[in-house]
Amino acid sequence: MENIVYFDLETQKTFDEVGGRAHMHKLRLSVGVTYSSADNDFHRYTEDTVADLIAELKSADLIVGFNQLGFDYPVLGAYTQDNLSLLPNVDMLDHLHRRLGFRVSLDNLAAATLGTGKSADGLQAVRWWREGDMDNLFAYCEKDVEVTRRLFEFGRKNRYVMFRDKRYKVQQVQVSW
Questions:
Q1: Range of the domain at 141
Q2: pTM, rounded to two decimals
Q3: Other beta carbons less than 10 A from residue 52's beta carbon
């Protein structure tokens, strides 16, 4: 049985606080969440257990995320010398960007394809971190992982996902993940 690990993380800081996107390794992990098809369960991580998160990713047959190559892995770069982008990955944002020539948000894709959306955004996640509201922070990250999993499974089964274009018209895009 293939062990697919769906993955997302949130950070302690914002881009403005670390000097922009060139310094993603300074954002620091607040929480990470995975969902493993091996045990059909969520796994929660903090900065104290980031080595366990990295170990889970490295043990996966396939890692599925949304912008893990462009965001999550650079953040995790502060905690490992391993090049996580060399692992078997499906970065849905990267895949869609290459197909469309522009970026589409997870929230847009989820709303158009699944009829659901994200529960908050990354800036709210940083605020929850600062307030010590770990329950909301983990719930938000878990929801993103669940949306990522459902979107991936829909695309894998149907060979397309949907999004709303700039005129709010629903469009289909073929996927091969």
A1: 4-91+122-157
A2: 0.93
A3: 14
